[in-house]
UniProtKB/TrEMBL annotation:
UniProt keywords, alphabetically: Cell membrane, Membrane, Transmembrane, Transmembrane helix
Protein name: Mechanosensitive ion channel family protein
GO molecular function, one term: mechanosensitive monoatomic ion channel activity
Compartments where located: Cell membrane
Family: Belongs to the MscS (TC 1.A.23) family.
Residue span(s) of domain Mechanosensitive ion channel MscS C-terminal: 175-262
Transmembrane segments: 12-36, 57-76, 82-100
Highest rank taxon of the organism: Bacteria
Pfam families, sorted: MS_channel_2nd (PF00924), MS_channel_3rd (PF21082)
Domain (Mechanosensitive ion channel MscS) ranges: 103-167
Topology of this chain in the membrane: Multi-pass membrane protein
UniProt organism field: Thauera aminoaromatica
A Gene Ontology cellular-component term: plasma membrane
Amino acid sequence: MLRFSAPVYVPLISFYSLLSYIAMVWVTWSAAQAIAETIIGSGRLNTRSIDGQLVRLTLRLIAVFVALGIIIEGASRLGLPAYSVLTGLGIGGVAVALAARESLANVMGAFIVMIEKPFRVGHWIRVGDIEGTVEDIGFRSMRLRTFYDSLVTVPSSTILESTVDNMGERRYRQVKTTLALTYDTPPARLSQFIEAVRGLIETHPASLKGTYHVVLHDFGESSLDVLLSFFLDVPDRSSELQQREDILMRILECADRLGVSFAFPTRLIRFAQEDKPDDLAAARTG
């Protein structure tokens, strides 16, 4: 049995207590992470979804407060005044906040996004000039997969300060275009074509009834411009493209059946022929 004198025994006990409190802090943090992953797994949540990240963030915050309590209690047991420990933590926290303002802004932005949930993983959104599908939502940033297959990382603070247009939350999807017809189209045939397109939109199974517009809208530089605007009642981008193609193909068939031709930009250029000096002299003498 080892025996230590007081000058050796007291520091050893203090060191052992310090290691014990450090271990308790580590166990608290690890337990919070394990509980978060268990909740996400049992709830069938996407590991990178907003709900999953919110569960992680909440448990991490709880772990931080519990760890602070352990640190204060440990400092008190080791003979350090709790007031001094809190003051030191406060000063250290201010120093860290000043040194990592951008990181804290990103964390706060991510927290607000997780609470408000303006979008989710898989949504098609626009953030400023960036457009794509949300692939990942983290504490510091969000990742968007653009339609040309690049991966863009957007800081959470940028999302908080920008206008986010969530295209994935649209109830209906608008299709708006101009049908340019040639100027030699007779008025009666133009009216028949417009009525035929209206009937096509009205009877199509994917169109939203009563909200479409098919009208002669303008006299273009080289065409009669017919405005075509309608909404599709479809669940996603893929269905939107398929139904849009189907309607446009039917419009082409309708135009072919009625003998209506589509115009293309044309320019008629007239060249003024300059008179030659000999011709001018002959004209004067004549």
